[in-house]
Amino acid sequence: VDGSLLSRLKNDVKNAMKNKDQLKLNVIRGLLSDVTYASKSQTSKSFSASDHEIYTIINRAIKRRQESIAQFTQANRLDLVENESSELLILNSYLPQQMSVQEIELEVVKFIDQLDINDVGIKDLGKIMKELNLDSAKAPKKVVVEVVKKVLSSRKT
């Protein structure tokens, strides 16, 4: 399946080569390499390089960059921080518009109200996370977990 995001990435590789944009070229090649690796390493042939699966790969790459930035900042290597930050901007440009924390919170509250459980608490975190279907491309799981925890702890009676 030639997803629209996959073809956009392949086109951007060509454009980056033409424009001699080495940083962007390296970032996109890295993503395409991750996509190829994921498609070959799946034990079940369920990986189809759909936009959603590519967003997951992009989010992983973003998380790696954020961790690197934190470590480089601690080590006072500002040259490396700058490079990682530039890569982060390129990666973020491929994600759809992110949901705000308030939007995520509204969805979580609405979902918990639909569950119709009287005594909902932190113990229900796993069940809620499993059933709450927010698009991970628009709402990173880490943020959603924090919001769910906050909503659940504010509900405690």
Automatic annotation (TrEMBL):
Q: Where in the cell is it found?
A: Mitochondrion
Does this UniProt record's set of keywords contain Lipoprotein?
Answer: no
InterPro entries in UniProt: Asn/Gln_tRNA_amidoTrase-B-like (IPR003789), GatB_Yqey_C_2 (IPR023168), YqeY/Aim41 (IPR019004), YqeY/Aim41_N (IPR042184)
**Any keyword Mitochondrion?**
yes
Q: Any idea which UniProt keywords this protein has?
A: Mitochondrion
Q: Which family does it belong to?
A: Belongs to the AIM41 family.
What's this protein's name? Answer: Altered inheritance of mitochondria protein 41
The primary gene name is: AIM41
